[in-house]
Specification:
By secondary structure, the chain is of the alpha/beta class. About 50% of the residues lie in helices and about 5% in strands. Among the domains are: about 20-120; about 330-455. The protein is built from 22 helices and seven strands. Bound molecules: iron/sulfur cluster (2 copies). It comes from Eilatimonas milleporae.
């Protein structure tokens, strides 16, 4: 239990529609109030790079206190924040309802919102964050896109680094030949009427990543739901807006929240649960959207009906019980519990889920991978992303080395998983001075849901081009 307020932590709505929110003098006053508390506290020293940057900045100033720090030097502190929420959720004793009323991630968000309003966010950075537009193009020309984004394509990656600010070394998701929504429109698996959970209804909110990139994850979830008797509709109106949130474009996030909530409202009214395949997106539906649009009934109702993928499967396991048919998969699984899963306050659902697979050792790793979505592939951040992820890479490498049989490395966040595997490759290359590529002997599955489907023998069709 943490010190501070005895009441449960709560979060205030984000005042992004108020003029004061963008008042730079008031923002500076709040930054100074919060930074001063953090400097005295220092609990978050090892969570990310924001806090070490802040403490070094203040400690290295003339007086060793905040009064001699120039506000323009705050920017690197803000830039290092991935909005992972871990300081708010796991460390800070001063979050509301404590009188200090401290919400560090949302203060970083406010700083970025002010920058965005002033036009200080680079145009190309905004283009890279248009995941639906880029996803449609990427799938339409998947052969070309996947060739151009390969890490060993020096020509295109140099151009991308120069023009779009994407670090040439960063592993980028590959594009599927056909978006998942189109695949699902052609064929859906038959629902198992004998499963204990038969009668449940769910909407699979595919998310941009599973819709345009690794469609195997969505395929696996669809097969799992059908096998467990859940009548499922695949609906993906548009991206949840997490990439825009990272860039401080809160108005754009609000537009997306309204649009998705309106589309899903009829399903929710008919008793469908909404299942998101990527934890950042589940977090948006459940927590961030209602804080951005606190008066919107459709957003509120949707948030109450939303589940993370592993959370939904464990809800079935706990209430009705899962359908029969799980078989051992051999070897050992390392499962990374991502920050945005932890921020949902739901416990280690992916670990619990994987432990349902018979005779399979599961080792969880619960620490930030450092990826941070689109943030982690940007030239300014890639080194920081690798640095923050090093402890996870070390732990996972140890687990993989000990694995007796196939080594599986999965994460609730498939992007974090790829970042961890790339970190292992780079660490290996540093040690041996040989670039080993991505062939680390680790099984290709990215998401715990894929492993559960694998244990049921429900693997995705192999004739689809995916990122795995
Ligand atoms: S939200 Fe995450 S990255 Fe940002 S300051 Fe808190 S712990 Fe660090
Ligand atoms: S966010 Fe809270 S716990 Fe973390 S350093 Fe600041 S005051 Fe301390």
């Amino acid at each position: 239990m943490r010190e501070g307020s005895l009441d449960a932590p709560m979060r205030h709505p984000i005042d992004w529609q108020e003029d004061d929110f963008y008042d730079e003098a008031k923002l500076d006053e709040e930054l100074r109030r919060v930074f001063d508390i953090c400097h005295g506290c220092r609990r978050c020293f090892n969570l990310c790079d924001s806090f070490p940057r802040l403490f070094d900045l203040i400690d290295g100033s003339d007086t060793g206190e905040l009064d001699s720090v120039d506000s323009k030097d705050f920017k690197p502190v803000v830039n290092a924040c991935t909005l992972c929420d871990m300081c708010f959720m796991t460390k800070c004793p001063y979050v509301p309802p404590h009188e200090f009323n401290l919400d560090f991630p949302h203060l970083m968000l406010r700083y970025r919102a002010v920058e965005n309003k002033k036009g200080d966010v680079a145009t190309m950075a905004k283009q890279v964050r248009k995941t639906d537009r880029n996803g449609k193009l990427g799938c339409g020309f998947s052969g070309l896109a996947n060739w151009a984004t390969r890490e060993d394509n020096r020509l295109t990656r140099t151009v991308m680094e120069t023009v779009a600010g994407i670090d040439r070394r960063a592993a980028l998701p590959k594009y599927a030949a056909t978006p998942f929504t189109k695949q699902a429109a052609k064929s859906m698996p038959a629902v198992n009427a004998d499963a204990p959970a038969h009668g449940r209804k769910a909407v699979l909110y595919a998310t941009c990543f599973a819709n345009y990139n690794n469609t195997d994850i969505a395929d696996a979830m669809l097969a799992l739901l059908a096998h467990n008797g859940v009548e499922t509709e695949v609906v993906y109106p548009e991206c949840c807006g997490m990439p825009q949130l990272e860039a401080g474009d809160i108005a754009k996030v609000a537009d997306k929240a309204k649009s998705v909530a309106r589309t899903l409202a009829p399903y929710v009214a008919e008793g469908y649960s909404v299942v998101a395949l990527v934890p950042s997106c589940a977090l948006m539906l459940k927590q961030e959207w209602p804080l951005i649009l606190p008066g919107d009934t459709a957003v509120k109702t949707l948030s109450e009906a939303s589940y993370d993928a592993a959370e939904y499967i464990m809800d079935i396991a706990g209430k009705e019980g899962l359908a029969d048919g799980l078989a051992p998969i051999g070897g050992e699984v390392t499962v990374h519990i991502s920050c945005h899963s932890r921020a949902q306050n739901m416990g280690q659902k992916a670990t619990q889920l994987l432990r349902l697979i018979p005779e399979t050792k599961v080792r969880p790793v619960e620490r930030c991978s450092g990826h941070g979505g689109a943030w982690g592939v940007e030239t300014d951040n890639f080194e920081t992303a690798l640095k923050v992820g090093k402890p996870v890479v070390k732990q996972v490498t140890k687990h993989v080395a000990k694995a007796d049989g196939p080594a599986y490395v999965v994460s609730e966040c498939p992007l974090a998983r790829e970042h961890i595997v790339q970190g292992m490759t780079i660490a290996e290359a540093d040690t041996t001075n040989i670039h080993t590529g991505m062939d680390s002997g680790i099984q290709a599955f990215q998401h715990p849901i894929q492993l559960l489907a694998h244990a049921y023998g429900l693997d995705a069709p192999t004739d689809r081009e995916t990122s795995s």
